[in-house]
Amino acid sequence: MTQTTDRGPVHSTTPVLVQGGRRAALVACLVRGATAAGLGLGALAVLVMVVWISSPYPDNGPDGALHIAAGLWLMAHGTELIRTDTLSGQPAPVGVVPLLLVVLPVWLVHRAARDGVIPDPAERRPRPSPRGAICAVSMGYLLVGAVVAGYSRSGSPAVNPLSALVQLPLVTVLAACAGVWTAKGRPAGPLPKWLPGALRLRLVRTRVAVALRAACAGALVLFGGGAVLVALSLVWHGEAVREAFPYLSEVWSGQFTVLLLAFTLVPNAAAWGAAYGLGPGFALGTGASATPLALSGDPAVPVFPLLAAVPAEGAGTPLNWACALVPVLAGLVIAGFTTAAAAPRFVDPALVWRNRETALTAFLGAVGCGVLTAAMTAAAAGPMGSARLLAFGPVWWLAGAAALAWSAVIAVPLATAVRMWRAGPGARVRRWLPRWPGFRRGTGTAPAPATDREPPSAPQPEPEPNPPTSGPPAPSVPAPVPASVPAPAPVPKPAKAAKAAPEAPAEAYDFLPELPRVADGPPHRPDPPEEDRDEEPAGPSPDRPWAAPASPWPQDPDPVTPADPPAPPAPAPKPEPEPEPKPKPEQGQGQESGPV
Length: 596
Fold this sequence. Notes:
Layout: H1 3-6, H2 16-20, H3 22-54, H4 62-75, E1 81-83, E2 92-94, H5 103-117, H6 130-152, E3 158-159, H7 161-183, H8 197-203, H9 206-236, H10 238-248, H11 252-264, H12 266-278, E4 282-284, E5 289-290, E6 294-296, E7 314-315, H13 318-321, H14 325-342, H15 355-380, E8 392-393, H16 396-423, H17 425-432
Antiparallel strand pairs: 1-2, 1-3, 4-5, 4-8, 5-6, 6-7
Helix pairs in contact: 3-4, 3-5, 3-6, 4-6, 5-6, 5-7, 6-7, 9-12, 9-14, 9-15, 12-15, 14-15, 14-16, 15-16
């Protein structure tokens, strides 16, 4: 290579996004947000255009169909629309948002923000900060939203500018925050630093997390029960539901459109059913309401399949009153979630929460359930027109207060009572419950006894009873003593009756081949032959000394019997004492004197 070639421009093979740095990453997030908005708007536009093309006599041209698509896209964000082509000529607001339609834009924004922050395994491109990603994705999405809102102001239905200015940014930013949170692994903390210290300390406590779970579970049961009530009412009024489709449209394309609209309003109907079961019910126009007690006022109910499930006019019946089971079940669920954490089953009473903490946690769960119910009913209601149709749906603050009252009245005393039972009488009852045969905690079988010893692998024969003896007691056999230590001579001691030596403890591996015992252990006695196991020999025998009359003299062992235990070792002979030396006699004592 030459020097000129070495100094030439370097062509990088890395992507352009990396060369731009973090600024290019923010631009990429901006493009992702605009793409998400275009995808949602395009999906609704395609659906509306297909219905418009399949309609045999459309009311307007393609421009009207595009205005409807833009209005639906804005309504999916909670924006209120205004109908200008009414029979009376007065503009009529449409504020009942199909809640199932909200899923589409929320999912698209969530996905765009998540993909913009998720780390790259190859690390070939930079990633923006979480705040930068939220701002960039939201800005790109809102730019498209501003264009759509400006286009919708000139047609019918038209967008309410104030509602679009509030609802569109709110939904977009919340969905982007959820996407970034998902990309970071859904962390539970840390809490924002701008919160007061005391509040942050209270929020991280265990009872707050338990109360949140209980509140979500109670709200889920509440709205699930409302959906069941609506389904049962639709089946009960099946004839009116079938008549609503041909009344609204005589062609299949129009009826299919009505079916799609009813499907997107199913979550709204569940919220209405939950409010009906709670007691406040829902409004059917100004001055008219439907509750389990009665349908009061002059309802203004448009012809629609879901509205055919509205109860008939007049006083309520026991079937209407039975709807109160829905909030009762929600309260029981909140109490169950609270006691599962405050006083679990079969736990040490010392680990159980106090009554005050249990009651406070259940009450917090009831408050959370009331807040969720109020938010859901507020989103499911709204105006459907002018004059009498301005109030349509459940009243959010009445529904939230009723959910709080039902949950608190049921969950707080029930959770406290269960806690007191499990920490007091329940703990004493559990002490003798496992003693029942066939009973085990939570499974219905008796628990295995806890023991430190290993159970024997093979059954051991039971020791035979000692038969009565009539002769003098047999002398006791001395224990074997090592040869290095002299043992004293055995001295027989009389006893009342000969006692059988206790059997050695069962070995854990007695099914293996027999091995010789250690030197200091007792001698091993082999098992009797197969032919002698069932029938014991009658009469005295050498290996059964207890069956013969006791004798003071030891019996001679039979050398032929192989089962005879080896004779104990003979005691070591006692060393004889050395003779003491005799004293020498003194001179002159006991000795004659010799000749001089």
